[in-house]
């Protein structure tokens, strides 16, 4: 693809020069919340995906039902970069309220598609303008006035498809998929697409440099959001009890889980092999999870920052009484209510130490949608193996946005239900002590309520207990249990997902990061290499407690930059608690915490400044 | 009491009463809670409940310690303050083949636990929920609880100037299907009520007034032994015939309500208070509110509904406990994932 190659080596600054840019730009669609733009955005995204061009979509929405401004960005990237791009080159301005501001935010050489009446041309003479009579076009294809607000979005898809050279057939296919079997709805929406497409074709001469061309980079790939992927992972982990309380941005995780449970987990007789309960609050949600975990079920909840705070007391009980449970935390911007529809990675310390006293919790850190799926089912195995609450820390960017991914693989390994004694085991053993470390791994054996054996029962409590689950205030007995819990936690270093070494032994400088920061950091590594000629190593952390490889990585570098999306350098802080003093001093931080997903440019610039490049 | 005879007396499932006992109580001598534990042991023994089929649940407080003092052969969970309902809900979702008995206190229920308590009632979760109600915080040495009556006197002389929360009226209004009040000192009534509770499917909410001998048994208290003995008035007399015993019909039908229980047992409520009907929700609540205004303490079975489905019934679960379903039933097959992956391409 000769034309595509032209853009190679031409950095973003070249846009003003009007050189052809193929498969490497961002579209920003500015609309009003509640106007039904999601379907249109999704159709456009999937059409580009259908062209084989790597694509990612991000919804920047307000905490509001309807009426406030919302933006959706679609990034096409021939290099496969899926992180947020700091600037978007193509604007679709459908919200009069923000139109001027949106227009002013475009880079020189950008493109603006807008309702004719907005007359945005007056604000910029360095932007290519395509005014479109959206309302008139919509009215011509949609006689029903009350549907026009929704259908108008499809007109923009048609205009954009024509201008950016997206196959109309692919758009048609996407619209068909979006509206499944509803022929009338399809006709109406595709009619609107066509109206936009035809209008653009007959009215405009293409003056901008942005083009989409067929590639072969999306064949076999899927598009899914992280919350759906987590839900899918939970269902394939055999989750049986789900208790939750609605909260943005975690709600769709439970909705996805519930839909799949209804689809795949009802017996031919119509009986459910699962229970989903919407609890009265997060306190009750985690209480139900622990009650169910105690009684032997695979149980889960999903929440976000404020819910995590409410779950603190119960988490400590789960840790100390040794009860499995899986808690998904789809992080949003804190503190307090914060910005519920913006992203952040600022719950790490909170979940790692959630609850009073010496409580420590394993935390799994998925960095992409595939890991959302895999860590979701790994979390259930780990929770039952270790008999403790396990957190899966996702975030709004990963959880609520659509990501391209390799298809998920079926978990071939059998479920690990952990150390559970049956009545037959008890017949053989005679008796058991609930909190005794008989195997030397810090993990004791448990029995489940309902086990038909006179010696099966034990007394579960959050108060001081000895290894036979008896109440104690004796210093030695109390401390023995606490020390065993430490041994158990140490064990988790080996059981939790190992870090991913993206690049090693090429530099004396290293990067450490976790979660969704990965997308921007990988792109930044390439920028640093192409712009400064510097190769930097990178290891992505995927769980707490930290694997020993992480210690080795820090030890083998002079300086290590910890890149994370919070103000207080939480990952760096957690690492410093874990590393020996002479290693801890090697850590530096690159932090991003304005509520938007971190972008590569920000990391690259910060790194260059700190390194004096 | 059982003595060391070669063949001790056993119940209908062949267990002697000693198999229903628990550890030694660490509560104060004379505490009403100990008497309640004794009645629980008697009821479970007489009803022939398999100890391994019971789970004992509690929150935090003197009352919540008591599950350690009865039925050691049953799994027990002493959870966090005011949150026993959610833990019990989770446990029953995981295994609906066990029977749950929760022991709470007036602080654990009517103050810190109010949020979960009302939702438990609303769901009609199948469990026995006992409030060991002494109107006072014992472990923290004598503060009023939210069930202390207005005008009652603290040991230090302080007068309570806030009205009591009537947990029974609340339970009836919110959806519990078996609501009663008793007194720890009334062996006969409490035992009959507990036995009927075991036979019920749905939330059984029993408010058992249980005097605190250390902090709330003085003159001026409305939760003292003396006050209860003088003011306790039963709305009905409870007769209970378990399903495994022959039922003899020997009552005056005008005065006795015969309720068929979930397990086939029979609960007979003989009217003591004129015109009192324990199937009339609004009437029950009105009677309780009027009694509270008059400073009377009514006891008995205030409300019963054996028809309403329990929370577990509404979920349409498989018969086996969810906790121990085999992997073949809980992990969808490979073809399911392939289908999903294709739909996302």
Structure, described:
The complex is a heterodimer of chains A (about 625) and B (about 350). Chain A is of the alpha/beta class. Chain A contains 22 helices and 25 strands. Chain A is globular, with a radius of gyration of 27 Å. The model of chain A is unreliable at about 1-15 (pLDDT under 50). With about 350 residues, chain B is an alpha/beta fold. Chain B is built from twelve helices and 13 strands. Chain B has one domain (about 15-325): Thiamin diphosphate (ThDP)-binding fold, Pyr/PP domains (Rossmann fold). Chain B has helices at about 30-45, 60-65, 85-95, 105-110, 115-125, 165-175, 185-200, 225-230, 280-295, 310-315, 325-330, 335-345, and strands at about 55-60, 75-80, 100-105, 125-135, 135, 145, 180-185, 205-210, 230-235, 235-240, 255-260, 265-270, 295-305. The mean pLDDT of chain B is about 95. Chain B is globular, with a radius of gyration of 21 Å. The interface between A and B is large, with 71 and 57 residues.
Offer a few descriptive terms.
heterodimer, A: 613 residues, alpha/beta, 6-stranded mixed β-sheet, 40% helix, globular, disordered N terminus, B: 345 residues, Rossmann fold, 8-stranded mixed β-sheet, 3-stranded antiparallel β-sheet, 31% helix, 20% strand
Q: CATH homologous superfamily of chain B - what is it?
A: Thiamin diphosphate (ThDP)-binding fold, Pyr/PP domains
The level 1 CATH classification of chain B is: Alpha Beta
* Helix content estimate of chain B: 25-40%
Largest interface: A-B, 71 and 57 residues
